[in-house]
Amino acid sequence: MDAAAKPRTTRIQVQKRELILDAALDVFSTNGFRGSTIDQIADAAGMSKPNLLYYFKSKEDIHTTLIERLLETWLAPLHEIDDIGDPMTELRAYIRRKLEMARDYPRESRLFANEILQGAPRIMPLLEDQLKSLVDEKAHIIKGWMRDGKIAQTDPRHLIFAIWATTQHYADFDVQVRAVLGPDRGGDGRFDDAARFLEQLFLEGLRP
Question: Which residues lie closer than 8 Å to 156 by C-beta, 6 or more apart?
Fold first, then answer.
């Protein structure tokens, strides 16, 4: 069929796909890929299984769509690190953006963590290509800051890993964080507290 002759996607179809993806995000982030079924996703979306399969051909299709979207969103803060910016300002902004994502996208964070814990069977090519290329690019920028004496010598990739680990903790282990902080400190302000601490932890350690 000629591309121009393909039927247009209607607004209702777009809305249905988004409804399915949102329901699937709940199911996958709770049960993981292996523990989730099409029936569970259909129930969460409030539609029949045949209706769901009109929009997505399989559980794998839904999961792949979610992961591809997630990686685009997840990597956006790393893309924004600018080589001509002040290193401390750039890294402080990166830490803040990653914590904002932990606050605003906890389901996506758990979805990604579940996939990684299973050995990344469905996204390994993306990790080895897209993610690795971006980290290599930003590691080169960080090394440039070190050569110029703007920040202390360190391993740039492990610095990025450490920022990922500490910021994403507030999404993946949110229940634990709130329980340990208690009712007085476990509210929304915990992210501001975390940002101040992580900025001190990382930025003071990187001062030349």
Answer: 138, 139, 142, 143, 146
